[in-house]
Amino acid sequence: MSETIDNRLEAMGIRLPVAAAPAANYVPYVISGNLLYLSGQLPMEDGKIAVTGLVGSDVDLAAAQRAAELCAINILAQAKAALGDLGRIARVIKLNGFVASAPGFTEQHLVINGASNLIANVLGDAGKHARAAVGMAALPLNAAVEIDAILEIGQ
């Protein structure tokens, strides 16, 4: 399974970064039983926040979807750091997507599709998940998007 995942990532031109270290007083992940809880991931690229500002005023929909994709890539990087092998992911249970939104912006669901589509394309059926897409007044470090995840772990 991990070979297939690696092949999909390569075909999509995605190279997983080194998992980001926490920016405050928390751990990047917690394993409890057969569940992996991943802390919120920001749209980091090359060690910095790639997309900042409010979606709907500072950030357009396409850039916000790219931010969500970057969050998903960082979710996979954290999962690989936690598990050693992405093939151990039995199922993505839930993604919680947070979008820094300008007043009146109501397309958070379309923004988080950037992450949902990437996760489903990389993990196949195991990547189909429940989710939330929520508008926020602001996010840490002025990030446009933040996403956390709950994954089921197999052996």
Automatic annotation (TrEMBL):
Under InterPro entries, the record lists: Endoribo_LPSP/chorism_mut-like, RutC-like_sf
Looking at the record's lineage, which domain of life comes first? Bacteria
Domain Endoribonuclease L-PSP/chorismate mutase-like: from-to ranges = 7-145
Which PANTHER family does the entry mention? ENDORIBONUCLEASE L-PSP_CHORISMATE MUTASE-LIKE DOMAIN-CONTAINING PROTEIN, ENDORIBONUCLEASE-RELATED
The protein, known as: RidA family protein
